[in-house]
Specification:
CATH topology: Carbamate kinase
CATH class: Alpha Beta
Catalytic activity: N-acetyl-L-glutamate + ATP = N-acetyl-L-glutamyl 5-phosphate + ADP
Number of helices: 11
Oligomer: single chain
Bound molecules: adenosine-5'-diphosphate, N-acetyl-L-glutamyl 5-phosphate
Organism: Thalassovita autumnalis
Function: Catalyzes the ATP-dependent phosphorylation of N-acetyl-L-glutamate.
Order of helices and strands: HHEHHEHEEHEEEHEEEHEEHHEHE
EC number: 2.7.2.8
Structural class: alpha/beta
Number of strands: 14
Protein name: Acetylglutamate kinase
Length: about 290
């Protein structure tokens, strides 16, 4: 097992206050398709989740899988258009998205967690009515905006000692629609409904960079709004930071945007003094 995180914390006793601080905490982790990389990245992520569980944290995994959807759509000769970072999703596409995310990707993560000794259990936003959606925008087709969350199933699974792994697929209100939800959006909605202690958004950069190109380690919600307004935050970082703002508004104590490609990313964030990446939280210094 890679023990870099212990080396970073230097000794286990140094990590102990952090372990105690997060005992019983609910930590929602968004695991994106790019961060999954290869089998080793998957195994390492799974080990982190199992270790978190073993030290008394309740990890809840919400995953993406954009690259895997692209690969399957390519095999089927179905093309996708993107609008503001979201896949325009017609009927044929949403069927593929559900098969790939709730089938292949979800079960791959569950299997990796179980292989590392955890009790991973895979569900989608459809299970137990977890994530009921409305259409986000008519232009996007079957892209869902989570509008009603029923997170009791997630709490029950955590209470039973399991690690829920959630595919970002939502049900509609009519009983027969399927919605494709952006992975970050789904993670934010689930974390918000759980009033999670942390939402970790794993991405492919070290964190949110300021105008000077350096990662800003602590950000207030107002700073994030200003950085979006003046263009310092751009591209794919816009929906990610907007998700963070909404999650904090919904009662998540802090959101961290960090590099999912580094070894033991989640453990480094939770169990070391300096954490990792950029932390976004309410402007109230008493918070979090
Ligand atoms: N201020 C910023 N700080 C960091 N990344 C930024 C910033 N503005 C734009 N970006 C871009 O956002 C990208 C992350 O978004 P995205 O590629 O959608 O992530 P993911 O695929 O992990 O969901 C970065 O790779 C970077 O190119
Ligand atoms: C609406 C929308 O765009 N949904 C995403 C869902 C997967 C996802 O978010 O995957 P990553 O986290 O790996 O990017 C998609 O179709 O690709």
């Amino acid at each position: 097992m890679n023990r870099d995180w212990i080396a970073t914390a230097r000794t286990l006793s140094e990590a102990l206050p952090y372990l105690q601080r997060f005992t019983g905490a609910v930590v929602v982790v968004k695991f994106g398709g790019n961060a999954m990389g290869n089998d080793e990245a998957m195994a390492e992520f799974a080990r982190d989740m199992v270790l978190m569980r073993q030290v008394g944290v309740n990890p809840v995994v919400v995953h993406g899988g954009g690259p895997m959807i692209n690969e399957m759509l390519g095999k089927l000769n179905i093309e996708s258009d993107w609008v503001r970072g979201k896949r325009v999703t017609d009927k044929a596409t949403v069927e593929v998205v559900e098969m790939v995310l709730a089938g292949m990707v979800n079960k791959r993560i569950v299997q990796a967690i179980n292989h590392e000794g955890g009790r991973g259990i895979g569900i989608s936003g459809k299970d137990d009515g977890l994530m009921i959606c409305d259409a986000d925008d008519p232009e996007l087709g079957f892209v869902g905006r989570p509008s009603e969350m029923n997170v009791q199933v997630v709490r029950d699974l955590c209470d039973a000692g399991m690690i829920p792994v959630i595919a970002p697929i939502g049900a509609g209100r009519e009983g027969n629609e399927t919605y494709n939800v952006n992975g970050d959006t789904a993670a934010g909605a689930i974390a918000g409904a759980l009033k999670a202690d942390r939402l970790l958004l794993l991405t492919d950069v070290a964190g949110v960079k300021g105008a000077d190109g350096e990662v800003v380690t602590q950000l207030s919600t107002q700073q994030v709004r200003d950085m979006i307004a003046d263009g310092t935050i751009a591209g794919g970082m816009i929906p990610k930071t907007e998700t963070a703002l909404k999650a904090v508004e919904d009662g998540v104590r802090a959101v961290v945007i960090q590099d999912g490609r580094v070894a033991n990313a989640c453990l480094l964030e939770l169990f070391t003094e300096h954490g990792a990446g950029s932390m976004i939280r309410n402007d109230d210094p008493e918070d979090g």
